Amino acid sequence: MKVGERRLGWQLVRDPLFRRLLCTRFAAQWGDGVFRAGLAGAVLFNPERATDPLAIAEGFAALLLPYSLVGPFAGALLDRWDRRRVLVFANLVRALAIVASVFAVGAGVGGIGLFSLALLAEGVSRFIGSGLSAALPHIVEPKAVVSANAVAATLGSAIAVVGGGCAIGLRAVFGSGDVGSAETTAFAAVGALLSAFLARRFAKGVLGPTVVDEPPNPVVAVARGLADGARHAWRAPSVTAGFVALFAHRAAYGISLLVSVLLMRNYFTDDGVFRAGLPGLGQLVACAGAGILVAGLVTARLIRSVGRLRTVLGSLLISAVTQAALGLPMLLPLAVVASFLIMGTGQVLKLSVDSSVQLDVADEARGRVFALYDTLFNITQVVAVSIAAAFVKDNGYSPELMVVATVLYLLGGAGYLLARRRRGDSLPQTVEAKRG
Fold it and tell me: Which parts pass through the membrane (predicted)?
């Protein structure tokens, strides 16, 4: 690592505001990891419940659609309201939604009842995630945004993986039935409450927005959020191109995720140190988390060294090769290695797109663009999982879907190149945007 990069990283760590923002994110994302793993265990690996591919797709939709349904509202309001207040209130509401979900799981509630509570809990979390991302440029200098974002997003994702691991460990203590799953999931509320406490310690207004360009009527502001985010994203070719690449990666990942869950449940058997079932899924998640962590260490240097263009294309190419070489054989050891590489390259890609939004979009619109980002990001995965569920075999062994995922990575690279060639509006660009 270069001397300048080490100095920049040390300055970020020494900044008390950045540390507080990091801890706020860590608490929230640890709770996210516990909640999602706890709910997944309750629905997918619960001996008291039977789950087919379509039911699994419904579960993914319940966890991911809130990003799509709440995203436009979150964006408009994050660019209007004090983001500190939003973070505190959203975490408290999320804690209540988690508690309600816990009682539902313990009572054996399933289907639309449980999924509705999950929708509420995950929907509120969009205000938290989008708010933290939109607030970051208020905490660090522009030259440090890429590094700070890599630290925050990558370590935050790793903490979410740790939360999932904690849920698996708690499940071993409390049991795999409805009551045990409920007791495990209840710990997620601790993360939300701690995040609310930490967010409250920020001074009013320090997290932005600095400029508010919203209409006086908040209903009109909310209704305008999605369209405004799309307009501002379209003005920056680097942002729209990044969206194309990332959404292709997300669609391919959604297919692989559904196949992996079914393989772990119904096809794979223990192979040496590698485990099937929920412990095997935990190993996949742990390797994915390691990939995310490595991505956080190298992404900023990659972008500075070769630019965003080569970084994004390289990530998609490695993902395609990994999918074909390691995912297609559908062997347990290879699947674990594939999870490390695909999630690592996906995180490099996401960090590249995050930096595009944070550097190439004006602050007064950044929240709406991030909300649009979250919306399309997760709609893409839900659609991919839903379509794949109609074709995947019950045991998960579906080589044709692995081929489709490989092709999607390559199409994402082609789409990225085409979108980059479009001329955007004449907007001021940062040095990073020009280099990317």
Answer: 54-74, 148-174, 180-199, 241-263, 283-303, 315-342, 401-419
Token pair, residue 243, equals 């969206």
Cβ neighbours of residue 383 under 8 Å, at least 6 residues apart? 251, 254
What DSSP character marks residue 274?
A: B
| Helical segments of 267-331, H only | 277-322
Task: Indicate the SS3 state at residue 392.
Answer: coil
Work out the number of other CB atoms within 10 angstroms of the CB of residue 178.
20
152 in Cβ contact with 132 (< 8 Å): yes
Q: Taking CA 61 as the corner, what is the angle to CA 47 and CA 245, rounded to the nearest 5 degrees?
A: 125
Tokens of 70: 């709440």
Residue 209, preceding bond cis, omega within 30 degrees?
yes
The reported pLDDT for the residue numbered 427 is 40
- Indicate the burial class of 388 (C-beta count within 10 angstroms; 0-12, 13-18, 19 or more): buried
* Full 3-state SS string of 92-109: HHHHHHHHHHHHHHHCCC
Measured CA to CA, the distance from residue 329 to residue 326 in angstroms comes to 6
Burial code (b: 16+ CB inside 10 Å, e: under 16) for 39-69 equals bbbbbbbbeeeebebeebbbbbbbbbbbbbb
Residue pair 43/49 in contact (Cβ under 8 Å)? The answer is: yes
Averaging pLDDT over each range in 28-32, 156-160, 285-289, which range is the top one? 28-32
User: What pLDDT sits at residue 228?
Assistant: 77
**Strand spans (E) along 165-270:** none
- pLDDT at res. 3: 41
**159-173, 221-235, 315-329, 330-344: least confident range:** 221-235
Evaluate whether 355 touches 303 at the Cβ level (below 8 Å): yes
Q: Which of 120, 154, 217 is CA-nearest to residue 26?
A: 154
CA 47 – CA 49 distance, rounded (Å): 6
Q: What is the dihedral of CA 336, 412, 144, 87, to 10 degrees?
A: -80
Cα–Cα distance, 238 to 143 (Å, whole number): 18
pTM of the entire predicted model? 0.71
Q: Looking at the predicted structure, is the pLDDT value of residue 433 above 50? A: no
For the ranges 64-68, 95-99, 305-309, 418-422, the maximum mean pLDDT occurs at 95-99
387 token code pair? 């379509």
Contact (Cβ atoms closer than 8 angstroms) between residue 347 and residue 295: yes
